[in-house]
Structure formats: C-alpha cells, structure tokens
Amino acid sequence: MEKNKKILIVGAGPVGCVAAEVLSKKGFNINITESRNHIAGNCYDYKNKYGVLVHKYGPHYFRTKSKTLLTYLSKFTKWIPGDYNVNSFVNRDFYEFPINLNTINKFFKKKFSEKEAKKFIKSISIKPYKKKNFENYLKSKIGIELYEKFYKNYSIKQWGIDPRFLSESVAKRIPIRYNKQTSYINTKYKFMPKDGFTKMFGNMLLNKKINVKLKSNYKYSIDDHRYYDYILYTGPIDTFFNYKFGYLGWRSLRFKFETFKKNFKQHCLQINYPNDFNFTRTVEYKHVTKQRSKYTTISKEFPISKGKPYYPRSTVEDKKLLQKYIKERKKLETKGVYFAGRLAEYKYINTDEAIEIGLNVAKKILKKHKKNQKKNI
Ligand SMILES: Cc1cc2nc3c(=O)[nH]c(=O)nc-3n(C[C@H](O)[C@H](O)[C@H](O)COP(=O)(O)OP(=O)(O)OC[C@H]3O[C@@H](n4cnc5c(N)ncnc54)[C@H](O)[C@@H]3O)c2cc1C
Predict the structure, then answer these.
(1) Can you list the domains of the chain with their CATH numbers?
(2) Which of 8, 81, 117, 205 sits between 20 and 30 A of 336, alpha carbons compared?
(3) In this structure, which residue's CA is closest to atom 39 in ligand 1?
(4) Which residue ranges have their beta carbon within 6 Å of ligand 1?
C-alpha cells in the first residue's frame, strides 16, 4: 500500500474519476481539482428545476464493444437499455437515420429488397474519386441526392466549413445500412447508467482517500512536485503550456433547453435538421433515460466557432501545433506529469474510450511507481 504517496488529478471528468478510483484502491492519496462546480466532465447530467434529467453538455449515448469495460462500470451503476433512435427531418418529413433500407425506400418512393437497394445505390454512386474527403467518400457510398439532403448542410452547420475540407473519417463514424436496423450506433453494448452519468462517476469517488475540490482552476507550477509524487492532467494541453506555441482550434456548441408540460414533445430521442433552422438537432432525454415525469425537456444544439472546446478542429495547422506540445509533454512525463483525455490529447473520444484511457493511465502511473521504488531500494 502507498500510504503517504500523493497524486494530483486535474479534472473530474471520466478520465480523472476512473484514474482516481483505481489509484486510490492501490493506497494513493488523491486530490482532484476541478474548475467546474460539478464532477463527470462533459458527461455531467442533472435534474433541472422541473425534475427532468438532462445532459448539460450535449446528449451522451453510452456504448462499448468491451464486456470487460462494462463489467468494470457495473460496480458503480445499474444499466438500462440504450435505445438510441434518430430521425432526420428532410423534405418536410421524418426519415430514419443513419440511412437504412426504410430511409432509401421512403426517399426514392420504392419497395426495394436489401439486394435491390444495394444495386440501386451502387448505380447512383459516384466512383472512383481522387481526393479523399468527407464529400467524396459519401458521394461514392450513397450518391449525390442522399448526400446533399442528409449530410451536406448538417456538416456545414456542424463544422462551419465546406465538407470538401472535412476528413473522410468524420463520415465513416456514421454507418450506412441496407437492413432495417434503426439504432444510431452499431456498437455491441448500448446501455445508459440507470441513475445517470454523474451518479456513476460519483460512486467512483466514494473512497476516503479521494478528496475533490470543485470550482478550482489549476495552473501548473514546478512547486507542485514538492507536494505530489505524480500529476495527472486532463485539461487542454495548450492551456497547460500557457499557449506558448499558439491556440489549438475547437468547434464549440451552444445549447438551448426547453421544457414542456407534456409526456413527450417529439416522437424519438433525436431529430436532425440538416436543411432547416440554425440548430443541428433536437434531443428529448426522456426517450433514453426512461424517466417518468409530467414534464419533458428537449435541447437544441447550435454549433458556434468560439467558446468552450467541444470538437477538435484538427486542421493541418492544428496538427502541427499539437506535435510541438506533444514534444513538451514528453519531457514532463519523465518528471511524473501525465496527460490524458480528450482535452489533453486533443482528440475526439467517446466516453468508453475515455474510461479505457483512465484505466490505462492509472496502470502507467503504477508501473512507473514500481520502477521508482526498485530504483530506491
Ligand atoms: C457534444 C458531445 C456529445 C458527446 N456525446 C457522446 C455520446 O453520445 N457518447 C459517448 O460515449 N461520448 C460522447 N461524447 C464524448 C464524451 O463527452 C467524452 O469522451 C468525455 O467527456 C471525455 O472525458 P475526459 O475526462 O477526457 O474529458 P472531460 O469530460 O472534458 O473532463 C475534463 C474535465 O477537466 C476539467 N478541467 C480542464 N482544465 C482544468 C483545469 N485547468 N483545472 C481544473 N479542471 C480542469 C474540465 O472542467 C472537465 O470537467 C460527446 C462529446 C461531446 C462534445
């Protein structure tokens, strides 16, 4: 047991909470410092003044392909099935999304079988293409019309740039199906924590060896090494280094929550609005939290260019800048400062990936600690 060893964790998001849970069990004393007034990072959910459970920083649909990860998390929460059903509002009508056989048949007013739909879509697809980008990839998969109605304007709103400048990988995140499967996500395990994400992450922090300080913004100082054996930083990497090479670019979001005194406001969890309004989607949480209430809340999501970091912009310049920060980061790792998570690594990750990262960085710290102990014998 590491009775007198102290670790500072900056950020009480998924990565910080998981690492704290693992390391506290090994006997380390953990201080978590969090700039917001709550834990759970961007997964934070809470009951609003109408008693409706909502997600403050955008809807979080939990999924994982790892049974081991699910088993680990089951120590901190019970689960409810994740029914993530999404529609797109196109040509004044609702279509199942991601595109599936029902979407294709309804859009083209056909009654195709799976095989016929594949053949038809192949006949309208644009292939081959030279430049790899979001637009060319999708046109090669579904043709021009579906691309323009379901993807093009949504992406322009979401990213604020021409989709020809977006990477293929963004398009590949959304499946294209020829069966009638409706779930938004293909991943094997789709569950929501029964009492919410905040409760699940809160349960990880119940160990007496963990001390959480909220509303406390951290700034690195060399003196910290006098008080802590290790530091785990999960905040933005450019902020840590005082932006000495410049600012990394992020796309931001503004949320507008609206509450109604009715059971449900919309017929499914999420409705995308690619071609109408200046918000991208509306989400009605009760569809997925299964909460019973005479009120219901929806959120509207407005992408904006300036504000809190949500999606890494990852332009060529951003990538170059990141490399400079990574070099600095590596130097500090030898001194026992670790960087992990979506802000510190400047990459989009889902919650299950953030949890894996939390587990892995805890392992890394333990390994380093064992090595240091051997050196001192
Ligand atoms: C709009 C949106 C929707 C998403 N939807 C899903 C989804 O449906 N399913 C899914 O699996 N994942 C989803 N995610 C991803 C999920 O939010 C992240 O994977 C997860 O939050 C990453 O955890 P983290 O600990 O790395 O970072 P965060 O959750 O951002 O936590 C980092 C914490 O560090 C704190 N912090 C930063 N700097 C400092 C500092 N200097 N001092 C003190 N504290 C600091 C921050 O306040 C924050 O609380 C979504 C993300 C976004 C943006």
Answers:
(1) 6-39+205-248+314-376 (3.40.50.720), 45-85+183-195+250-308 (no CATH), 99-172 (no CATH)
(2) 205
(3) 235
(4) 10-16, 33-36, 41-43, 58-62, 217-218, 234-235, 253, 310, 341-343, 349-352, 354
